[in-house]
């Protein structure tokens, strides 16, 4: 199990998690899922895994997304744009949400665990951009707000689909439940962020 992924540039609101702690946090996510599935299967399950402790992690409160992939395909992705709680608590909450509360997918089953990979994305603070042309594909995550509807893509989404900027924003419009050209509206608002993204290699 190996952590990989880019770093949030220095100067953002949290200290990047070093590789050795990435592995610890990914392992914590996996143990939480295993424990939840065993508990659902019947009584006699041991207590919930203890959260990891580290001075590096103790003061961190970034936005957190947890992504699950089953045999390479998206199986769940849930998170928060802003840091609502300490990092380890956020990873606990979002790991369980991605596995059991993502409305796009049925709850995770025990037989899927062996083919499941886990990824974490830790978000920098949001920055407003005046024009969509300022968005850098592959570097920026994007939040778009139009007509009160809001949608978000993590930076890796456009890269995984090989989208250019127009296709990314059209897809983001559809995700928000709007026509694919909604991003061109004058009242469309864009915010960007960067992530530290790392995950298991299976």
Q: Quick summary of this structure?
A:
This protein has 202 residues and is α+β, with helices and mostly antiparallel strands.
Query: Uncertain regions: pLDDT < 50 for 5+ in a row?
Result: 7-12
Q: What gross morphology would you assign?
A: globular
Number of helices: 5
In CATH, the topology of the largest domain is named: Glycoprotein, Type 4 Pilin
Euclidean distance between termini CA atoms = 7 Å
Total number of domains: 2
What is the CATH class designation of the largest domain? Alpha Beta
**Per DSSP, what share of the residues sits in E-state strands of 2 or more residues?**
15-25%
CATH-assigned homologous superfamily of the largest domain: Hypothetical protein ph0010, domain 1
Helix share of residues? 25-40%
Secondary-structure element sequence? Answer: HHEEHEEEEHHEE
**How would you classify the helix and strand content by structural class?**
alpha+beta
**How many individual β-strands?**
8
Largest sheet: 4 strands, antiparallel
Q: Could you give the order of strands across the largest sheet?
A: 2-1-3-8
CATH architecture title of the largest domain: 2-Layer Sandwich
Mean pLDDT: 89
Rg computed from alpha carbons, rounded to a whole number of angstroms: 17 Å
Name the features.
4-stranded antiparallel β-sheet, Glycoprotein, Type 4 Pilin, globular, alpha+beta, Dna Ligase, domain 1, 8 strands, 202 residues, 5 helices
Account of the protein in words:
By secondary structure, the chain is an alpha+beta fold. The chain has 2 domains: 19-124 and 195-199, Hypothetical protein ph0010, domain 1 (Glycoprotein, Type 4 Pilin, 2-Layer Sandwich); 127-193, Hypothetical protein ph0010, domain 2 (Dna Ligase, domain 1, 2-Layer Sandwich). The chain has helices at residues 19-41, 55-58, 87-100, 155-161, 165-175; strands at residues 63-70, 73-80, 116-123, 127-129, 141-146, 149-153, 189-193, 195-199. A 4-stranded antiparallel β-sheet has the order 2-1-3-8, covered by helices on one side. The protein has a 4-stranded antiparallel β-sheet with strand order 4-7-5-6. The longest helix has 23 residues, at 19-41. The chain is globular and about 55 Å long. The model is unreliable at 7-12 (pLDDT under 50).
